[in-house]
Amino acid sequence: MSADEINRINVRLQDLQDRQEQNHRALAEYEQIENHFLEINNQGEHLFARLYDVWHGDEELANAIEYDRLELQQCKRQILHELDSKKNEILKERQELFYLEDDLYELKRSIERGEDT
Predict the structure, then answer these.
(1) What secondary structure, in 3-state letters, does 32-96 show?
(2) Total-model pTM
(3) Which among 85, 84, 51 is positioned nearest to 67, based on CA atoms?
(4) 109 close to 42: Cβ distance less than 8 angstroms
């Protein structure tokens, strides 16, 4: 086995580390987006609660507020499902990158052992 093969593996490992860093940034960005969404959603829930408390005497308006609140909750569930799906994609890619890294390091070690004998 040659030094060229080791160099090619090292280049692939460097590319892999770059992809892992991108993945890490994507996961951090996802978590920031999720936290921001949940914060905004909580503010919306508090707003609906306050609106309902103020206008519950007007049955038509109270019903409209409740309808809008339920619609907002449905949108929240859909968005959380989409966010969770994206997170799972990122985590799956992360795991695949770790497996690939292990495989490359194992290949490199086996080549190096082959050269030493």
Answers:
(1) HHHHHHHHHHHHHHHHHHHHHHHHCCCHHHHHHHHHHHHHHHHHHHHHHHHHHHHHHHHHHHHHH
(2) 0.79
(3) 51
(4) no
Residue 112 in tokens: 């190096």
Task: Indicate the residue type of 64.
Answer: A
* Contact indicator for 107, 9 with CB cutoff of 8 Å: yes
- Could you tell me if 84 and 38 are in contact, meaning their C-beta atoms sit under 8 angstroms apart? no
Contact 10, 98 (CB under 8 A): no
Q: Which residues, other chains included, contact 76 with Cβ-Cβ below 8 Å and sequence gap of 6+? A: 41
**80-110 core/surface letters (b: 16 or more CB in 10 A; e: else):** eeebeeebeebeebbeebeeebeebeeebee
pLDDT tens track for 59-105? 898 889 889 999 999 999 999 999 999 999 999 999 999 999 999 99
